[in-house]
Design a protein that fits this description.
- The protein has a domain of 67 residues.
- 36% of the residues lie in helices and 9% in strands.
- The chain contains six helices and two strands.
- Strands 1-2 form a two-stranded antiparallel sheet.
- A hairpin with a 2-residue loop joins strand 1 and strand 2.
- It starts with 40 loop residues before the first helix and ends with a helix.
- The model has no long low-confidence stretch (mean pLDDT 79).
- It comes from Escherichia coli.
- This is Putative prophage protein.
Length: 129
C-alpha cells in the first residue's frame, strides 16, 4: 500500500502505528486531508462517554488544567446553548472532571447549579475539547 500524506499529516506517521480503514459513509463528503477531531468515530460513539469522562483518563491526558488550556486556545465563545444573551468576556467553568468555556453572564447563572444538560455538555467538551 502506498500512502501519500500531506504536510499537515506527517506528524502522525512519526508514531509507531497508523490506522488505515475504509471511509465511513458519514465522511464521504469531507475533503481530503486530516479528519477534524470532532468527526472522529470514537468521539461520536456514545458507549465510550463513561471512558472519556473518567477522572483517570482525563488525568492521563494532562488533567483538567490541560483541558482548560486547550479550551482557552480554541474556543472563543460561550458553549452554553441556552439563553439569548452572551457577554463578550469568557471564563473557564469547571464541573466535575470537565471544563467548558462560558461567558460571564452564563457562568454567573450556572455557578451553583448542577444539571444533566450541563453534565452532558461537559462530557462532549472532554471528547471534542
Amino acid at each position: 500500500m502506498i500512502v501519500k500524506p500531506g504536510r499537515e499529516s506527517m506528524p502522525v506517521f512519526h508514531n509507531t502505528r497508523v490506522l488505515v480503514e475504509p471511509e465511513p459513509k458519514s465522511m464521504r463528503n469531507l475533503p481530503s486531508g486530516v479528519v477534524p477531531a470532532v468527526r472522529q468515530p470514537l468521539a461520536e460513539d456514545k458507549s465510550l462517554l463513561p471512558f472519556f469522562s473518567d477522572e483517570r483518563v482525563i488525568r492521563a491526558a494532562g488533567g483538567a488544567g490541560a483541558l482548560s488550556d486547550w479550551l482557552l486556545r480554541h474556543v472563543k465563545s460561550c458553549q452554553w446553548p441556552h439563553g439569548d444573551y452572551h457577554h463578550s468576556e469568557t471564563v473557564i467553568h469547571r464541573y466535575g472532571t470537565g471544563a467548558m468555556v462560558l461567558c460571564w453572564h452564563c457562568d454567573n447563572q450556572l455557578r451553583d447549579q448542577t444539571s444533566e444538560s450541563l453534565g452532558n455538555l461537559l462530557t462532549k467538551t472532554c471528547l471534542h475539547g
